[in-house]
Amino acid sequence: MAITAILELTIKPESLADAARVIDETLVKTRAFPGNLGVDVVVDVDDPTHYALIEHWESLEADDAYRGFRKTPEGASDLATILAAAPRLVRYATA
């Protein structure tokens, strides 16, 4: 069953100039991960510090494997350096 994962990010105002670069660099590994079907990045039109990464996965197992990968040294990214708060992840099954 396909999964859509939405990761909401709150960027530090002082990091806005670096946000697009850091997110793009992070998503290179995401898009290359087995089972990833694509990622879209959207920014709140009323709040430029509010980003959402909309990830499409072949299965819950693929997404679980990816989440585990990001907890390893090989999966680490600089994303935390630009965040004002912990990311919020919600995963949806395709109906």
Structure description:
With 95 residues, this protein is an alpha+beta fold. It has one domain (3-93): Alpha-Beta Plaits (2-Layer Sandwich). It has helices at 16-32, 60-69; strands at residues 3-10, 36-43, 50-57, 88-93. It has a 4-stranded antiparallel sheet. A hairpin with a 6-residue loop joins strand 2 and strand 3 (50-57). The mean pLDDT is 97.
Short description:
This protein is of the alpha+beta class. The chain has two helices and four strands.
**Percent of residues in helical segments?**
25-40%
Extract low-pLDDT stretches.
none
Number of helices: 2
State the secondary-structure class: alpha+beta
Distance between the termini: 9 Å
Task: Write down the overall geometry.
Answer: globular
Could you tell me the mean pLDDT?
Answer: 97
| Strand percent estimate | 25-35%
Q: What can be said about the biggest beta sheet?
A: 4 strands, antiparallel
User: Architecture, according to CATH?
Assistant: 2-Layer Sandwich
**CATH hierarchy, class:** Alpha Beta
Number of domains: 1
**CATH overall fold name:** Alpha-Beta Plaits
Number of strands: 4
SSE ordering: EHEEHE
Instruction: Specify Rg, calculated over alpha carbons.
Output: 13 Å
Strand order of the largest sheet: 2-3-1-4
Features:
95 residues; alpha+beta
What order do the helices and strands come in, and which of them pair?
Layout: E1 3-10, H1 16-32, E2 36-43, E3 50-57, H2 60-69, E4 88-93
Antiparallel strand pairs: 1-3, 1-4, 2-3
